[in-house]
């Protein structure tokens, strides 16, 4: 059976695992205005972050990128990431295993 989920119905703050124990790892990130996730990395992963609503300052390595609702970014999980919510924000994050290509 194909699983269908509603992001708003997921449990977990700020992270909610959309499809537990399934790959690629898919997370709904919800951050209230002013909140942030401490700098961290996801070695061995390629990451896609789609900002559904809000505004986020996304720290990637040494650079800061401002994202607004509808923006999407792809990056290497080996670098440090730290999202900071400029306003209440919700994002969908997909963490895929890096290929050997």
TrEMBL record:
Organism: Salinigranum rubrum
Residue span(s) of domain Cupin type-2: 29-89
Highest taxon, organism lineage: Archaea
Protein name stated in the entry: Cupin
Region (Disordered): 1-20
């Amino acid at each position: 059976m194909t699983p269908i989920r509603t992001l708003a119905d997921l449990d977990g703050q700020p992270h909610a695992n959309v499809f537990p124990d399934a790959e690629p790892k898919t997370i709904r990130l919800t951050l209230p205005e002013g909140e942030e996730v401490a700098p961290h990395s996801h070695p061995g992963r390629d990451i896609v972050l789609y900002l559904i609503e809000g505004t986020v300052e996304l720290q990637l390595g040494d650079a800061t990128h401002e994202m607004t609702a509808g923006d999407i970014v792809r990056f290497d999980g080996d670098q440090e990431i730290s999202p900071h919510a400029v306003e209440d924000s919700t994002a969908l994050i997909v963490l895929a295993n890096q290929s050997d290509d």
